[in-house]
What we know:
It is globular, with a radius of gyration of 27 Å. The protein is α/β, with parallel strands linked by helices and about 450 residues long. It has helices at about 20-35, 40-50, 60-70, 75-95, 130-145, 165-170, 180-190, 210-215, 240-255, 270-285, 290-300, 310-320, 335, 350-355, 395-410, 415-430, 435-440, and strands spanning about 5, 100-105, 110-115, 120-125, 150-155, 175-180, 200-205, 220-225, 230-235, 260-265, 300-305, 325, 345, 385-390.
Amino acid sequence: MGRQYLKEVTGLPGLKTAPNMDVSAIVKDVIYSIRKDGDAAVRKYSEKFDKWSPPSFKLSQSEINAAIANCPRQTLDDIEEVQQNVRDFAKAQRNSIKDFEVELRPGVHLGQKNVPIDNVGAYIPGGRYPLLASAHMTILTAKVAGVKNVIGCTPPINGKVPNSTVAAMHLAGADEIFIVGGVQAVAAMAVGTETIQKVDFLAGPGNAFVAEGKRQLFGEVGIDLFAGPTEILVLADETADAFTVATDLISQAEHGPDTPAVLITTCPKVGRDTIEIVERLLYNSDLSTASVAKTSWDAFGEVIVVDTMGEMWELGNQYASEHVQIFTRSPRDALEHLTSYGALFLGEKTCVSFGDKVIGTNHVLPTRTTSRYTGGLWVGKYLKTCTYQEVTSEQASGDLGRLCGRAARAENFEAHARSGDLRASKYKKDQIQWIKKSQAATGVRL
C-alpha cells in the first residue's frame, strides 16, 4: 500500500511569509533599549505590550502572601503535590550525576565536579493561560540542582497579578518574583537593570518574541533550549482506541494555532476514526478552547498510515517530535526503536497532559526536530560540569612534560612546549637548550 496521508498539513494562510524579520527587529530594539535605559525601558515596554505599570515590578513578601491567600486551598494543595513529584524526579536526576576523581597513572589525578550555576532567570509565560507548571519545571528544578539565586518573571493576566502563578513560583523557591512579561522580562534578566539582577542563565518557554529574545541573548547568557510551538506525535497500531487518540491530539492542539498534532498508525481504521472523532469533538462540543484547537488541527494536523511497525518507528524518528505517545500492543518497544524525541509517553494509561502538568518529568522540551541533538530541561542544565587536575608525582610531571613538549611542537605551539620542557628539566633532569640560555640571560636557576 505504501505510505498514505489521510490528512495533510495545509498551514495557516500567510504563515510562511510572516515578517520574521520584524520580530527580530522588535526584539533587538527592546534589548538595546533595556541595555541602555534599564528599568525605564522595562516600564515603557511593559506599558506598551501588557498595559502594566505598577509602582514596582518586584513583588514584596506581603504581596506574595496576599497572592497566596487569594488562591483556593485546593489549588495550593495541588501545587504542592505536583511540586513534590517534580522535586522527587529532579532529585533522582541529581543523584545520578556524580562527581569523581581518578588516578589515571601514579601521581596524576583527574577529577570532575558538577557546579551549580550561581544566578538563573526563570520566565513563566502567561499571556493566554496561567502556566503554573512552568514554575515547577524551571524554578524548582534549578533549586534542586543547587542554584543559589533564582529570579522569576511572569506577565500580568488581564492587568492583574496572576495569584496562582505567583504561589507556584514562591513555593518552588523563587528568591525574587517580578510581574513583568515578554521579551522585556528576559532582556532585563539577561543584561541587568537597576532593580533586576543580571543572571547567568535563562530558562523557560514563551512566545515568538521571548524565543527570539533568548536566541539573541544566547552567548551573553546561557539558555535552556530553543523552543517553538508545542508538538504532539502519536504512534499507534490496531490496538489503539481512536477516541483516546483524538482526545490527546486535541489536548495539545489547544496550546496555540500553530501546534503540530500528528498521528502515524499502521491501522487505516484507527486513522479514519481518529479524524472523524477529532472533527466531532471540535465542532460539536462545549470545549472552551475549541476554536484555537480547531485552527491548529485544520492547519497542522496530520494522519499518516504506514505498512509496518518498522516504518512507523522510522518515520517517528524523522518527525523528532517534542511529545511522543505510544499506543501499541507493546509500548515499551519504543525505548528500543526511537532515538529522537523530547519525551515519551508509553501506553494508553499515560498522556502528554500528565507530563505537561503533574507527573514530575520536565515539560520544557525540544521542538522543531531539535530533539535530534538535545533533550529537554533537567537538573543537569543548571550544572556546569567542570574538570580539575593535579600532578603529585615528580616522575609523572617529568614524563608528561616530555610528552607535552613533543605534542605541542607537532602543532607549532613553542610556548606550550616550553611549559612541558620546564617540568622535564626539573623532574627528569633533561638538558634543554632554551632553558640553559634563559638561565644565563636571567640569572635564574631551577
